[in-house]
Amino acid sequence: MVVLSVENLKVRYRVGHGAFIHAVEDVSFKVDEGETVAIVGESGSGKSTTALAIPRLLPPSATIAGGRIIFKGKDIMALSKSALNKIRGKEIGFVFQEPVSYLNPLIKVGEQIAEVLILHDGLDKKDAKLRALKLLEQVKVSDPHRVFNNYPHQLSGGMAQRVNIAIAIALNPSLLIADEPTSNLDVTVQAQILNLILSLKKELGMAVILVTHDLGVVSGVADRVLVMYAGKLVEEAPVKNIFDSPLHPYTKLLLKAVGRQTEVDRDEIRGSMPNLVTPPPGCRFLSRCPMRMDHCSEEVPEISLERGVRVLCWLYGDRRGS
Ligand code: ATP
Ligand code: MG
Predict the structure, then answer these.
(1) Residues 216, 259 contacting (CB under 8 angstroms)
(2) From 128, 193, 241, 285, which residue has the greatest number of CB atoms within 10 Å?
(3) 181 DSSP β-pair partners
(4) Does residue 170 contact residue 117 with C-beta atoms inside 8 Å?
(5) Which residue's CA is minimally distant from atom 28 of ligand 1?
(6) How far apart are CA 35 and CA 94, in angstroms?
(7) pLDDT tens for residues 90-101?
């Protein structure tokens, strides 16, 4: 069953003088119950904008300029504020990139978890505390009582992220969205947090959207991968296809960069993303594409279906090369 369906999502940010950044353009995808979908792409490709749009957590400068977001049959865009708050708290959990900054510095972390349970599940203080301690255990905190009484600044980055995950799963959401949940953590902690998300996913049967700029982390983690570039979804494929037979020239380049540790090596994908205030008229990947053809600069590519994979490139589809 489909949990989430995003159709032709279009998001722009107001940047003054009547100008907009066209951050997400015509992005469509579905997430099935219990499925893990990764969104990958380099910085600025629109991953967070897409992720934040789903529970409508975008900043005020952003406008959803088109498209539909259907979560469990409900049109997210049409919901009242209170209905939306219910979904945000209960049905969609969100884990952010900066673990500490999403916790209130003045409140003990255990109380912050308990507060969610009191507010949304109607538990009394005592039951909420017991359940919060259970949640800390569930996110593999070794000393739940101590951590319950800690303030956020007393936690390591990894521990703070575990607390955020505890809050995100507190109400058994059907969908967990994790936006670069490990990118500010040490490498060993990164793996632990990813494994934690995966084991919780199995335990709780939730679907997961995992946002990452590192294609390397998605193998063995995701079922399906969405590759974004400059606000466009350029390829959507089962994880195996992404690694064994990538189609889009950008996915191929991303794959080449996997496993390379230094910034110099990562620069293999030469050049930079186009300006998204005035995006180019044709393909947004044109300036960096080793396979570009003449008409790629004039016509926006259409999504085509190739062996069960969706790809946005003039090399594929009925009108290939035309
Ligand atoms: P990263 O890997 O760096 O997190 P991302 O793929 O998540 O990148 P987004 O944060 O979604 O990318 O950004 C997409 C585009 O929107 C970029 O051009 C970015 O500069 C712009 N953008 C993002 N947030 C804002 C904002 N609050 N105001 C204006 N522009 C923004
Ligand atoms: Mg981001």
Answers:
(1) yes
(2) 285
(3) none
(4) yes
(5) 13
(6) 16
(7) 999 999 988 888
Q: Domain segments of the chain: what residues?
A: 2-91+171-319
Spatial distance between the Cα atoms of 269 and 262, rounded to a whole number of angstroms:
13
Candidate of 10, 13, 232 to mutate for ligand 1, largest count of ligand atoms within 8 Å of Cβ = 13
Query: Which string of DSSP letters, residue by residue, matches 116-155?
Result: HHHHHH---HHHHHHHHHHHHHHTT-S-HHHHHT--GGGS
- State how beta strands 92-95 and 224-229 pair: unpaired
Distance 17 CA to ligand 2 centre (A): 25
What is d(CA 158, CA 86) in angstroms, rounded to the nearest whole number?
Answer: 28
Distance CA 223, CA 201 (A): 12
Highest CATH level, class, for 2-91+171-319: alpha beta
Residue 262: the pLDDT is: 46
Instruction: Report the pLDDT value the prediction gives residue 264, as an integer from 0 to 100.
Output: 44
- pLDDT at position 45: 95
Query: What pLDDT is attached to residue 308?
Result: 85
Per-residue pLDDT, 89 = 77
**Three-state DSSP class for residue 13:** strand
Predicted confidence at residue 103, as pLDDT, reads 92
Strand order in the sheet with 303-306: 92-95, 175-179, 207-212, 36-40, 224-229, 232-238, 309-312, 303-306
**Residues contacting ligand 1 via CB (< 6 Å):** 13, 15, 21, 23, 41, 43-49, 59, 61, 213, 276
Distance from residue 152's CA to the centre of ligand 1 (Å): 27
For the chain, which ranges sit under pLDDT 50? 261-265
Q: How far is CA 32 from CA 70, 218, 235, in A?
A: 12, 17, 18
> What is the enclosing helix (H) or strand (E) of 288?
none
- How many residues would you count in the chain? 322
The closest ligand to the CA of 42 turns out to be: 1
Residues contacting residue 139 through CB under 8 Å, at least 6 positions apart? 162, 163, 165, 166, 169, 196, 200
